[in-house]
Specification:
The protein is about 45% helix and about 15% strand. By secondary structure, it is of the alpha/beta class. It has one domain: Rossmann fold, CATH 3.40.50. The chain has a six-stranded parallel sheet, sandwiched between helices. α1 links the parallel β1 and β2. The relative contact order is 0.18. It comes from Pseudoalteromonas fenneropenaei.
Length: about 240
């Protein structure tokens, strides 16, 4: 059974969002289940003037054991893919959760509308707290348990310091600019995915596009889940995750 399992959170969040899944996996006998804060989020510092993926991945890699399976939610999928390329001994498998190698919508690719990301970037400068609240609402949109999901996310966020403002702004830039589709096809390791059919950030059509791009990519879609299936449909999510491990 895989002993090194690393859980990575998404934009604006921290490692606390994984606490219930982490407990489920530890009780199932996985020896080492780590939930990590991305650089600049939670308790992980960010001291640089700008936020770039290469530097952030370098900092993150120092905390990841060799031969780990990375479970990467949302923005963290970009970190996982880049990390697997830069530090191949660290990563044996990637499981993307509500994530994509390219988040921006284009005529050939389903994703987040450029206007939506631009609005978030502008709002972040005005009111960080309200911007994160709005993002929480979008993540739960469509879920049967939307209010409960948002409440849980809000409570877990409060357990750690407010994210670094440079990391928040830089993370949105990564979502807008990072295109790792070529890398997604080229990595010589298994890549899996777990998605929610009601996800508005990584729509169901994006999953089909990823499967066309990389025929070896295996994905499961939870029919009633949104962007955070590990919160809204935890038992089903954990069952699928175990099958992929």
């Amino acid at each position: 059974m895989q002993s090194n399992l690393v859980l990575l959170h998404g934009w604006g969040m921290n490692k606390a969002v994984w606490q219930l899944v982490q407990q489920d996996l530890q009780s199932a006998g996985y020896n080492q289940v780590l939930a990590l804060d991305l650089p600049g989020f939670g308790n992980a510092p960010w001291l640089q003037a700008e936020y770039d993926l290469t530097t952030a991945v370098t900092e993150l890699a120092a905390h990841i054991p060799e031969q780990s399976t990375l479970v990467a939610w949302s923005m963290a999928g970009l970190f996982a893919l880049h990390l697997a390329q830069a530090y191949p001994n660290k990563v044996r498998k990637i499981i993307l959760v509500g994530s994509s190698p390219y988040f921006l919508e284009s005529p050939q690719w389903p994703g987040i509308k450029a206007l939506v990301l631009a609005q978030f970037q502008a709002a972040l400068l005005q009111d960080t707290g309200k911007t994160i609240e709005r993002f929480l609402a979008i993540q739960a949109m469509g879920s049967e348990h939307a209010k409960q999901d948002i409440k849980r996310l809000r409570e877990w966020l409060a357990t750690s310091p407010t994210p670094n403002t440079v990391a928040l702004a830089g993370g949105l830039t990564l979502l807008a600019d990072c295109d790792l589709r070529a890398l997604f096809c080229a990595l010589p390791i298994p890549i899996y995915g777990i998605f929610g059919r009601l996800d508005s950030l990584v729509p169901e059509r994006a999953v089909a596009a990823m499967q066309q791009l990389n025929p070896a990519f295996r994905a499961e879609i939870l029919p009633k889940a949104s962007h955070a299936p590990f919160i809204s449909h935890r038992e089903e999510f954990v069952s699928i995750l175990k099958s992929m491990l």
